[in-house]
Amino acid sequence: MKAKIRKLVVVVEETRKEMGRTIDPPTRRAAAVAVIENPFAGRYVEDLEELMEIGAELGGLLGEKCVSALGVAPGETESYGKAAMVGENGELEHAAAILHPRLGAPLRKAVEKGAALVPSSKKMGSPGQVLDIPLGHKDAAYVRSHFDGMEVRINDAPRANEIMVAVAVTDSGRPLPRVGGLKASEARGEDGLR
User: Fold this and answer.
1) pLDDT tens figures, 59-117
2) Dist CA 90 CA 69 (whole Å)
């Protein structure tokens, strides 16, 4: 593996009650975060291929960890997202190189299918700062009940020469959705929209 991982963190959030109402079954989302060494920290590098390769490795690893943490079959997952936070000696383009060219395909394989774009965010940060992972339905972008997000925070990451790379996967949408749009049960997943 090209990624030099200092730490892996996996967290599952389960909502059982919202606004005094029981959520049955509970909505669940999992995030898997890798804290990695930034091979280009502190210097400008034109060719970011190494980070693209790392993205491909981490897409599968983190996606599989999320699915495993939820305890569901890959086909039972419903939404996903990705995010990265670069420490102060890096640049936003380092996060983009990890997230965009190659992380998506192995993540889609880990959750079965994934016709829709994987929502993403990237930012610069320091240890303990919150990283927001946007979420959207994995097969149909018009499923509004799955427009969501998950926060992750690691007290000692990212350090100046590190990158925090995160993937989130859910087995449901938001609790108590009621803003209309396409229902998850109606999604066909053919064009990534419907």
Assistant:
1) 999 999 999 999 999 999 999 999 999 999 999 999 999 999 999 999 999 999 899 99
2) 30
Residue 67 maps to a domain: yes
Residue with tokens 């829709």: 116
pLDDT, position 191: 86
* Structure-block tokens of residue 35: 């804290």
Domain count within the chain:
1
CA dist., res. 186 & res. 96, Å (int): 32
Q: How far is CA 12 from CA 37, 42, 165, in A?
A: 25, 34, 16
In a domain, 62, yes or no: yes
pLDDT tens track for 11-21: 999 999 999 99
Size of the chain, expressed as the number of residues it contains? 194
CATH code, domain carrying 142: 3.30.1330.110
Three-state DSSP state, 192? strand
